[in-house]
Amino acid sequence: LYQRKWQRSKYVGVSLVGKTIAIMGFGKVGSEVARRAKGLGMDVIAHDPYAPVDRARAIGVDLVSFDDAISTADFISLHMPLTPSTTKIFNDETFAKMTKGVRLINVARGGVVDEEALLRALDNGTVAQAALDVFFEEPPPKDSKLVHHENVTVTPHLGASTTEAQEGVALEIAEAVIGALKGELAATAVNAPMVSAEVLAELSPYVVLAEKLGRLAVQLVAGGSGIKAVKIVYSSARDPDDLDTRILRGMVTKGIVEPISSAFVNIVNADYVAKQRGLRIIEEQILLDGSPEAPINSIQVQLANVESKFAGALSDDGDIRVEGKVKDGTPHLTLVGPFSVDVSLEGNLLLCRQVDQPGIIGKVGLILGTMNLNVNFMSVGRIAPGKQAIMAIGIDEEPDKEALKLIGETPSVQEFVFLKL
């Protein structure tokens, strides 16, 4: 019966380009359906009171109200759980709000649809066709009017039990385990912030930036201990409700804690480790004008009430302050204290504060070259011509004591610090 009804289904040959599909329930399955619908040229809207806006934005889907979704869609695909509030939510009143000729797909739970109301909607033409994978009673009775209806396509709710599905799950598990062992972030972790694969991919370079900024900031603290307050400032054109920063907060914590302790920190235990160490994490977002296409413009890490081993990293408020951006997918350091710089956060970093005058860059560069230390990036930030300046130099290798001694003895170099990234 299932095979016969599928073969004669009127869905075959229907053009989907430009049609609107409403995804009712934007969890893992709903978002995957949305991705495929976008690939078929459909306009996709979704309703889910619990779905984060950033997940929908990453796929190119608009989140709308329940009534807006059902009243404007040509196709309605159900992926919501069965709860007291969703039981028979698709009933006579609901169907009356739909566009005449709508097509309904239910792969969620049979109980979310009033089956008698659906029959009436099919018979009066409100619902042109229905595709059902679930029923209120499973398996449905042999004399089920829905199963035998000429405008209904049915499947036996066995997708997860197919050979292909089992192979896919096995591969996904193996890939997740390998990724976790490599220290990569996993979108499928159940005890970590739930972030879709699309959002995770979008945030991935900022995750690297966040950890490196934390690691850099803690190395600027004299002694590396005594840190009690960390402030993370995100600048973004996105609405704060659209930006999930939990992973970024965790990675800043990881960057700060791991270099000064034996603790292994990840996004699962970051908040717990911070609490154990009495580390107070404050987050702030600066809303920028402009396009929200990129999730974040910059990340700034501030450490308050600590002594710095490099005075040039202190802001006017006396906090250690470092800021970075992602450029072409690579994290860059863009601010040290009050000094603007632009250096790729790769390998190791040498910061030198000096009086801004000719010849300093060449002298330090000559020392590094003589010691066979390769410079991969260099930037100079200054307050004003002839005043204080900072050189930020990326080097591939770690300089020995002799090289650092020579740099420290260079005329006009007032202080320097070597940082491992």
CATH fold label of the largest domain: Rossmann fold
- Shape assignment: elongated
Task: Count the domains.
Answer: 4
Rg (CA only) = 29 Å
- How much of the sequence lies in strands comes to 15-25%
Task: Give start-end ranges of low-pLDDT stretches.
Answer: 1-11
- Helical stretch tally: 13
Neighbour order of strands in the largest sheet: 3-2-1-4-5-6-7
CATH architecture of the largest domain: 3-Layer(aba) Sandwich
Q: What structural class results from the helix and strand content?
A: alpha/beta
Pfam families: 2-Hacid_dh_C, ACT, PGDH_inter
EC number: 1.1.1.95
Domain D-isomer specific 2-hydroxyacid dehydrogenase NAD-binding: 3-159
Organism: Aegilops tauschii subsp. strangulata (Goatgrass)
